Amino acid sequence: MAFSSFGDWLGLLATTALALELAGGNYKKANFAIAGVFIVRLLPAVLLGPIAGVIADRFDRRRLMIVCDILRFGFYASIPIVHNYIWLYTATVIVESITLFWSPAKEASVPNLVPKDKLENANQMTLVASYGSAPVAALMFSVLAGVAAAISSFTSKRYASTADLALYIDALSFLYTAWVVFKLQHIPRDGGSKSAVNDNIGKSLIEGFKFVSSSKVISGLILGMLGAFFAAGAVIGLARTFVGDLKAGDAAYGILFGSVFTGLALGIWLGPKIFGQFSRRRIFGASLTVSSFFLIILALVSNIVLAMLVTILLGAFAGLSWVTGFTMLGLEVADDVRGRIFAFVQSLIRISLVLVLAIAPIIAAAIGRHSFTINKHHLNYDGAAFTLFGAGVIGLVVGIISYKRMKDRPNVSFLTDVLAALRGELVSESGRTHTGIFIAFEGGEGSGKSTQTKYLKAFLEERGEKVLLTREPGGTELGNQLRKILLDPATGNIAPRSEALLYAADRANHVHNKVMPALLGGEIVISDRYIDSSIAYQGAGRVMQANEVARLSKWATDGLIPNLTIIMDVPAEIGLGRLNGADRLEQEPLAFHERVRREFLNLAAIDPDRYFVVDATQSKEEIRQQIASRVALIPQLALNESRAIK
Questions:
Q1: What CATH number labels 427-645?
Q2: Of the candidates 45, 283, 540, 640, which lies 20 to 30 Å from 233 by C-alpha distance?
Q3: Helix (H, G, I), strand (E, B) or coil at 634
Q4: Could you tell me if 30 and 19 are in contact, meaning their C-beta atoms sit under 8 angstroms apart?
Q5: For the segment 208-242, what is each residue's pLDDT rounded down to a tens digit?
Q6: pTM recorded for the entire structure
Q7: Domain 1-198, what fold?
Q8: How far apart are CA 635 and CA 334, in angstroms?
Q9: DSSP letters spanning 193-249
């Protein structure tokens, strides 16, 4: 896989370079020729993708892969021999069509070769083999440019083409892959599953659009991902002519191409570690916006070395955006519709790439070459630079829209988060994924939380949901012991920091032993109090730094955040008047409880999408109906309701 992917990336560089070479110096013809290469590489996937996987499953997979690789060897080897546009495009279309049959056979064979517990590792290795070989191929292309220059010193340039040498190596890589697969005797004929990617594209688009349009977050996510691929497509489609405009050759083209993937690798690998403290929703739109900004800078650069440095930065933020986007798709979308959403996204990406790869070079060709004189300084900007600038502006707009559409805590600026991260006050989101739903109830004393949690549990169980009702402090054996210590008036005065630590200890144990196991099992967890109670009581109530208390609790829970937090709001005086007895916290003065109430409302104002404030002075029935209506809007529950109706 690694050598085959290396050859494929080398072939992409070679075919675009050959298209430019065959243009004979004509700027418009070169742009059209390169656009043609990208279109014929992607078009078969759009047209044949829905049926290739089904057909491939009808054949012996091992034999099919061997035959496909031998055919790809022959067609790639023939391109430099024939050496004209018609065969370049014809052979490319045929090779890409053959690949559509080879890929599903390979994907279906991997589970038969690898133990189930190692399948995820095998998939990671496949990604490394597929994309990690791109920078190596780019470096090899640059080396081949030097080899070709040396050969041309003692023979005809017709036999010293960088593109031709690269195509021969590409062809050999497929022959080598055929030999490797021939040696694998344990690939069975049957046992494969049809990937969601091979579903009918039209059906995927329709089903995906219905789901996406119902979610502001998912629609913003996909809009951003399309913007990222739009910008990336412009860079890929115009890279060769852009390098030519900077008076550089094939070696520089290979290095620039490699710079993109080097940046992508850095962004994918290091980005989540460096920016792990920020919410994925925020960092996705922000990284897309930054990468588009660097695309605009790239369009203005007239130095090839500086262009490479900017390209690495562009690729790094694009890689961060890419890995964040796909991670969010996996986390935000329910398991049973995830396949069709991924198919929907893949279909949109294919279509958008075909469009941008076709349009970008045409626009560049139409703009042509231009020179400007400013204060006796002569500047040359050609169609590729203008088009890259336009793509950067579009990406910038899409990034900003995506950020605003998706960002959580809309009343907190990104700069505030940056400063908080520098002070160490942000805690990373939980890396643990789950299929359940987490609902927390918060509010002051006497607000009616306990009553409404029971009502909500009954409401959800009537809908057929499995529900766990729990509370803090408590919920576990250790929690109940801590509850006695924390709430018993006989305990007496507890130092505010000690109190905060005790609540955090209860919460850490509660999440680890009760909440998270239920969420991993797909249950709905309703908790009477959670992190916000510590922020309000130990933070605002005890007049401590609320962000410090929040950081402590987020660390204790590994960043687990509820899908919905319901704030039961009641004036402190009314709430306290409803109580029959008084525990240690309930005995605090009225001013303490007013500070607690204000802090709950402040938290809700910061992130209105995740909080729902209920007027707890209403009747129990009115409150019950309002909460039930809001809970029913949680995306996973809305989807379950839709299925139940059907």
A1: 3.40.50.300
A2: 283
A3: coil
A4: yes
A5: 566 666 666 777 777 777 777 777 777 777 877 78
A6: 0.62
A7: Growth Hormone; Chain: A; (1.20.1250)
A8: 9
A9: ---GGGS-HHHHHHHHHHHHHT-HHHHHHHHHHHHHHHHHHHHHHHHHHHHHHTT--
